[in-house]
């Protein structure tokens, strides 16, 4: 398996935790992407099992339901040889009134090596990371960040286009409630892409331009000459009140189909973090078009990226063992 060349921080990732993309340098992001490249090939072998994390304990701690992210992390950890424990909040002590800090203290006493945490509140994962002695990976906290999703999106783009620098990328949909949008904006800007965000006024954060993006309120205008189109799911579970008049009207103006995609470059590629609401954010035929859609590749890259993150964050543990 290939590994990244030595750089300013050598072969060690210089952070104990991965809580977000904001604050990571271009070199640190590229380190993780390069490491993930090798794990893509590992995952395509008939024999996928590695011994890198043999004897290490990984805990998936999800306070929100998830299928693809939790399964992807579990598969990544098991392919590296780790012992994996999945904790569902549905039967955890949190439901009985235990605080997040008490949960952290309990888990800390079990001496895990990595906690993978999804939490409905922005900042919840960071708070937990401050109370434990192991590495923590943010699997999504509220509307704040989802760093491994941005990394897998970047790896998908880089493998198809060779480089991210200079690309015109449009992030479209529910910008206000999307942690995926925030992590992608940070990463794409850091690696030299030009980012536009497209949404109805009710789903566009105020002062969004401070994140270094250009806002559009018209999908066709925003897609003009774009290389990559990232569609986002409507985060209905985070909405209180009505943000769109109707699903039908939302798709009419902001749902992606072949006709609207004609405004982008002829070879523009389409992405979606999933799960998709077909006929709401994206037309089903376009989502399944293997020539234009990268959605299936995103799922594959997710396992490789999460293997790379577990590898990177446990290197310090291995050297100190």
What does this protein look like?
By secondary structure, the chain is α/β, with parallel strands linked by helices. 37% of the residues lie in helices and 14% in strands. It has 11 helices and 9 strands. It has helices spanning 26-43, 68-79, 100-109, 124-129, 147-161, 179-190, 219-223, 247-254, 258-261, 284-287, 295-320, and strands at 57-62, 83-88, 114-119, 135-141, 168-172, 194-198, 214-216, 228-231, 269-271. It has a 5-stranded parallel beta sheet with strand order 7-6-5-8-9. Strand 3 (114-119), helix 4 (124-129) and strand 4 form a beta-alpha-beta unit. Helix 5 (147-161) crosses helix 6. The longest helix has 26 residues, at 295-320. The two termini are 23 Å apart. The model is unreliable at 1-6 (pLDDT under 50).
How many strand elements?
9
Shape descriptor:
globular
End-to-end Cα distance: 23 Å
Specify the number of helices.
11
Could you spell the SSE succession in H and E letters? HEHEHEHEHEHEEHEHHEHH
Structural class: alpha/beta
Name the poorly predicted regions: 1-6
The amount of beta strand, in percent, is: 5-15%
Radius of gyration: 19 Å
Q: Give a quick account of the main beta sheet: strands, pairing sense, barrel closure.
A: 5 strands, parallel
Helix content percent band: 25-40%
**Widest β-sheet, arrangement of strands:** 7-6-5-8-9
Mean pLDDT: 90
């Amino acid at each position: 398996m290939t590994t990244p060349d030595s750089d300013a921080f050598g072969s060690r990732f210089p952070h104990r935790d991965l809580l977000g993309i904001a604050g990571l340098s271009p070199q640190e992001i590229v380190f993780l992407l390069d490491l993930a490249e090798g794990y893509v090939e590992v995952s395509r072998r008939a024999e996928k099992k590695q011994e890198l994390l043999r004897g290490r304990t990984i805990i998936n701690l999800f306070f929100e339901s998830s299928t693809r992210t939790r399964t992807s992390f579990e598969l990544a950890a098991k392919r590296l040889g780790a012992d994996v424990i999945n904790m569902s909040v549905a039967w955890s002590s949190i439901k009985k009134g235990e605080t997040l800090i008490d949960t952290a203290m309990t888990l800390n006493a079990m001496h895990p090596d990595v906690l993978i945490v999804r939490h409905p509140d922005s900042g919840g994962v960071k708070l937990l990371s401050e109370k434990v002695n192991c590495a923590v990976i943010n699997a999504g906290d509220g509307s704040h960040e989802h760093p491994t999703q941005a990394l897998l999106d970047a790896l998908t783009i880089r493998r198809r286009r060779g480089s991210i620098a200079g690309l015109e990328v449009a992030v479209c949909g529910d910008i206000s409630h999307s942690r995926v949008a925030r992590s992608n904006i940070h990463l794409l800007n850091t690696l030299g892409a030009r980012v536009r965000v497209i949404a109805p006024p009710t789903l566009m954060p105020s002062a969004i331009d401070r994140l270094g993006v250009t806002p559009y309120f018209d999908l066709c205008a925003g897609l003009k000459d774009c290389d990559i189109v990232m569609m986002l799911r409507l985060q209905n579970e985070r909405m209180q009140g009505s943000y769109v008049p109707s699903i039908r009207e939302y798709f009419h103006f902001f749902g992606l189909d072949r006709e609207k995609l004609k405004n982008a470059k002829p070879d523009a590629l389409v992405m979606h973090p999933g799960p998709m609401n077909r006929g709401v954010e994206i037309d089903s035929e376009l989502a399944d078009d293997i020539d234009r859609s990268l959605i299936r590749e995103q799922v594959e890259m997710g396992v490789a990226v999460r293997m790379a993150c577990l590898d990177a964050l446990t290197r310090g543990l291995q050297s100190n063992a």
